[in-house]
Amino acid sequence: MGYANVEDMRQHARRRLPRAVFDYVDGGAGDERGVQRNRDAIEQRLLKLKPLTDVSRRDPTVPLFDKRLPLPFIIGPTGLNGAIMPGGDVALARAAARFGIPFVLSTASSMSIEEVADAADGELWFQLYVLNRDAARQFAARALAAGYRTLVLTVDVPVGGRRDRDYRNGFGVPFHMTVRFALDCARRPAWALQQLRGGAPQMANLRSSAAQDANSQAMLMLRQMDASFDWDDLKALRNEWPHRLIVKGLTDPADCARCYSLGVDGVVLSNHGGRQLEDVVSGFDVIEHVDVPDGRTLLVDGGFRRGADIVKALALGADAVMLGRATLYGLAAAGQAGVEQVIETLSLEIDNTLALVGCPNAADLDRTILQV
Ligand SMILES: Cc1cc2nc3c(=O)[nH]c(=O)nc-3n(C[C@H](O)[C@H](O)[C@H](O)COP(=O)(O)O)c2cc1C
């Protein structure tokens, strides 16, 4: 089946996944105004055309840290990908590798740090939650040993968001198998069969003899989360982690400046896809207010579904965009091939937008293509 765009993938994902799983991926905090705001922020920013420019050759690559990124986006961290498809983490990592873009593995991934590193050979980053010192140190050490060189510290989850769809569906920790969920699964035989073959999804990084199933692993992770983590802890982590450190989950330019001054290499403007607190400013709207020191990086996520969305973020001053749900819809719709199709579609849309706005090189985008 042909998918014209990411929304087509989303619709297919809706048909393929049990409702509780689709809602987990698709939903957000409270009334989901935050999810909608992320979209609105991007849609309301209009483009200006710069016609009469030679756009016969286009280049979507952008510089990112010490490399050139072949496409101006990367696949961001998402937990429990195994609920979408067994092996989902590796499918995402391999699809990213095929296009030469990094994949960020979540602390709450369904496959372990080591399993993903063994199975995928592209650039891997590891996302760390603000866990207690010991747990954080252990995860960072494991990631380093497995070849991950970039640590993404997610700071907007001192506690979990309240997501109403998950609450209604009983999708949370501890997980309750309700009659409704069982019936829902039975109506999604392709998904159910895959899950039966693949075994129940896990939070594999927390697997131990004391935590064999996803429920006890998730409980363990909740116990290890550290809501007291603050700027001093970030400073300590910066001193301990000798490689690239990115902080994800900022919405205030002052916090970005403070991170940069502590020696953090990059920040991700993000409201966690509207999944934590709904009435929070969209990362997209903050981009132009951040001063990025030379040699440091600014990433953004939240609501990116079209190539033109990504072009707008670059024009405002972001170095690249992180994808969350977009690639998950592809994974749900058609596994690794679906993820590749999302990447391919976005890349075609970016190429098309670069030509039509009249700025053939993504690296040259600036505010002259945006209405002020
Ligand atoms: C199903 C799902 C799981 C997520 N899990 C994590 C996670 O484990 N760690 C993290 O830092 N962010 C997580 N996020 C947030 C994403 O990294 C990203 O900030 C967000 O999805 C961006 O918004 P978008 O989905 O509209 O692109 C998750 C998002 C989704 C949709």
Keywords:
alpha/beta; single chain; TIM Barrel; binds flavin mononucleotide
Strand order of the largest sheet: 3-10-9-8-7-6-5-4
Please tell me the total number of domains: 1
SSE sequence, one letter per element:
HHHEEEHEHEHEHHHHHEHEHEHEH
Over all CA atoms, what is the radius of gyration? 20 Å
Distance N terminus to C terminus?
40 Å
CATH superfamily: Aldolase class I
| Uncertain segments | none
Strand percent estimate? 5-15%
Helix share bin: 40-55%
Return the CATH architecture: Alpha-Beta Barrel
What does this structure look like?
With 372 residues, this protein is an alpha/beta fold. The protein has one domain (6-369): Alpha-Beta Barrel (TIM Barrel), CATH 3.20.20.70. It has helices at 6-16, 19-26, 33-44, 88-98, 113-119, 133-146, 164-169, 179-186, 189-198, 214-224, 231-240, 253-261, 283-286, 307-316, 325-357; strands spanning 62-64, 67-69, 73-75, 103-105, 124-129, 150-154, 244-250, 266-269, 297-301, 320-323. The chain has an 8-stranded parallel sheet. A two-stranded antiparallel sheet has the order 1-2. The longest helix is centred in the last third of the chain and has 33 residues, at 325-357. The structure holds flavin mononucleotide. Flavin mononucleotide (FMN) is lined by residues 24-25, 38, 76-79, 106, 108, 127, 154, 248, 270, 272-273, 275, 301-304, 323-326, 328.
